[in-house]
Design brief:
single chain, 220 residues, binds D-xylitol-5-phosphate, binds zinc ion
Length: 220
């Protein structure tokens, strides 16, 4: 499967957001990870519609929107109109996952389902034929800069093995605590869409992106 890097702008310098996005574009990123938080599903509040709209106007990167919000069904239509290309909601945040998948599809967008560390990957199984991607969180969602939980990487490994046995090819995104130092392990576990926030935007995003992308292409 092809590997994609999705730098998370949660860790970007917002004073200079446009230039930070240009830097990861120059570095060769293919996606841009946009973390929307509501202060309810997760403790923190990040950003939402106006930022997404601004990004869409100026970048051609695929906008990979990670919704950490309750009742995501209330917002997907607006987010799709504003330019989200891939909309990922948390299975724990909605009572109607099937309807939500259909709604996102009917808006012509790609769909992802995310799970928190405590949710088993078996909970994803009813939806695997219906979504483009699953997002297996490797930290508790809500904040950047945390350390990757090794037990979550084991979930990725088991999930990839199981879907391969089932003959299902699906993108597996990993989000939280990915650094250059553990990237190889993350890829080897079976993830192919890699979110990196602080590891990319912490210093020199262009160079950090290039380093990640080079390593990821070697692993493909
Ligand atoms: C956390 C967010 C992540 C975050 C990752 O809840 O979903 O996307 O930005 O940040 P790092 O890569 O710094 O762990
Ligand atoms: Zn995220």
């Amino acid at each position: 499967m092809k590997n994609y890097l999705s730098p998370s702008i949660l860790a970007a310098d917002f004073w200079d957001l446009g230039e930070q996005v240009r830097a990861v574009e120059r570095g060769g990123a293919s996606y841009l990870h946009v973390d929307v938080m509501d202060g309810v599903f997760v403790p923190s509040i990040s950003f939402g519609m106006p930022i997404l709209e601004a990004l869409k106007r100026k970048t051609t990167l695929l906008l990979d929107v990670h919704l950490m919000i309750m009742e995501p069904e209330r917002y997907v239509e607006t987010l799709a109109t504003l330019g989200a290309d891939l909309i990922t909601f948390h299975l724990e945040a909605t009572k109607k996952p099937l309807e939500l998948i259909q709604k996102i599809r009917s808006l012509g967008k790609k769909v992802g389902i995310a799970i928190k560390p405590a949710t088993p990957t078996s909970a994803l199984e009813p939806f695997l034929q219906l979504v483009d991607m699953v997002l297996i969180m490797t930290v508790e969602p809500g904040f950047g800069g945390q350390s990757l939980m090794p037990e979550c990487l084991e979930k990725v490994r088991e999930f990839r093995k199981r879907t391969q046995e089932m003959g299902i090819e699906i993108d597996v995104e990993v989000d939280g605590g990915v650094k250059e130092g553990n990237l190889e392990k993350v890829l080897e576990a079976g993830a192919n869409v890699i979110v990196a926030g602080s590891a990319v935007f912490g210093s020199n995003p262009e160079e950090r992106t290039r380093i990640f992308v080079d390593k990821m292409q070697m692993e493909e």
